[in-house]
Amino acid sequence: MKSRPSRTADPPPTGPPGTPAAPRPGPAHDDDTPVYVISIAAQLAGMHPQTLRAYDRLGLVTPGRTSGRGRRYSVRDVALLREVQRLSQEEGVNLQGIHRILELGSQVMVLQAQVRQLTEELATARAEAERRVAEAHKSHRRDLVPVDRSAIVVWRPGPRR
Fold it and tell me: Residues 6, 62, 5, CA angle at the centre, nearest 5°?
């Protein structure tokens, strides 16, 4: 019988040497599937597990939970942890500022989804309108007298009496 690799095992690094990197999701899970225990997620994000717990308490990153209330982090969570660390260390943003940035980012994603949906609805409505116009043109009678559009008629009043 073939043994399954542990989901919490250290993945092969894909980044620069010495920097743990999150693996690409395989067929068993996607970016949002919580699979990493806190120690592995902390290692992948380059942080201490206690920092992850603090970020969870502050609402910066909300990992999935097991039935025993253990934290499980997804690939997307690890990427978010890295972004929080980058904003904090490289940009000098405090945790309250990071929380606001993440909220605004979520709002932008929601609005972008709405724009995509409305764009699709608009395209559907335009196609329907064009179809109706074409249908109306087909039903018009063709017995109108053609007019030569290049003919010019000049009217000059006659002499007054």
Answer: 5
